[in-house]
Amino acid sequence: MDLPGLSPLSISAHASNENTAAIKAEPCSSEDQAHIPAHLSHNPSNNLKRSDPFKFGSRYLEEGDNVYEFNAWDHVTPDDAYYAYAEAQYASQRENPVSDFDKHRFNSEPEKWWNKFYSNNTSNFFKNRKWLHQEFPILSELTRKGAGKARIFEVGAGAGNTAFPILASNKNEDLIIYACDFSGKAVELIRGHEAYDERRIRAEVWDIAANEPPLGVEEGSIDVVLLIFIFSALSPTQWDAAVKSAWRLLKPGGEVCFRDYGRGDLTQVRFKKGRLLEDSFYIRGDGTRVYFFKEEELRSIWNGGCGMKEGGADEIASIGDTKEGGTRDLRLKVSRPAFDIISLGVDRRMLVNRQKQLKMYRCWIQGRFKKPITNAGLEQGSKPL
């Protein structure tokens, strides 16, 4: 069900064409350019977008600004039209969820769909994440010359677009990166990369929801676990196992660097009929899964809140029928280890199609979670991990 007058792919601006389309950037003198803030400058010598890596969060949309002057604005709250359109989309998604047959098909073998994805999309499909050091300064600390023995463990390494940029900027001779993915095809892509060197990077097939670390990795030996757009690919029933796996891998004082999709992101709103697996959890057209998080939800997940444990093999969706014809939750409540939350926040961005004068609202969540130096983060009565 689409909201009348609104595009299903993006939300059109409400400013009149007379007030926006006719506005053009006038040439500025060098003197004028000197007084223009870098985040609003079109001059290549004074434009934050020319920095490498580009600094996020620096372009604020203020009263009087022409929204169509730039391709993106930071920290923009969606307007009422977008929220109305989103609610209409959510209602349609709930009315037309994935069938029980497809729930089983997509949830029973998620690695199958990721193998197909990486068979169709090689490393050239992805952009290297050059912003990682800026967003997660601990990576700069571990990769500086003379930093000493350091171990970085990336979960869901994909084609290596996180691991290889870190490796390229590394000056620490004692650094090793573990790049793991539960897709064997993804691991093949990493091992076939020209920069792959097992003295510096080791790729293995591994599932973060598994009970044991991958071969060759000792528990409590990792300085940083990277979870970049990977937690959202897990079923909610796997979150507990994933958090425990990260805890097992990390040294006391080690960190999880996290970035993923936030609730209300345009990609969530865009989903059509037959894509909703359960609340905020969807199946993409290529068969891969994606969840959209709330900030408070992640705070609970990583700070020791109660999670849900999967039942038997036949309880893929964790829902069973009742005699009355309804459903009941078959999942068991379990406690998670409690990480210290160093930072956790929502990153909102408005992307702009200047030619069509469309606004597109993106939402991500980013955080850093630290394993306590002592076992204080374990629930009282819990067994050591």
Q: If you had to describe this structure to a student in words, what would you say it looks like?
A:
The strands form 4 sheets. Strands 1, 2, 3, 4, 5, 6, 7, 15 and 16 form a 9-stranded mixed sheet that branches. The longest helix has 16 residues, at 80-95. The protein has helices at 17-20, 30-35, 80-95, 100-108, 110-120, 132-135, 138-143, 163-169, 184-191, 239-249, 266-270, 295-302, and strands spanning 11-12, 72-74, 150-155, 175-181, 201-205, 222-228, 250-261, 276-278, 281-283, 289-291, 306-309, 319-321, 327-329, 332-335, 340-353, 358-370. The model is unreliable at 1-31, 46-54, 308-332 and 379-385 (pLDDT under 50). The chain is globular. The protein contains 12 helices and 16 strands. It is an alpha/beta fold and 385 residues long. Helix 5 runs parallel beside helix 9.
For this entry, give a set of tags.
disordered C terminus; 385 residues; 25% helix; alpha/beta; 12 helices; disordered N terminus; 24% strand
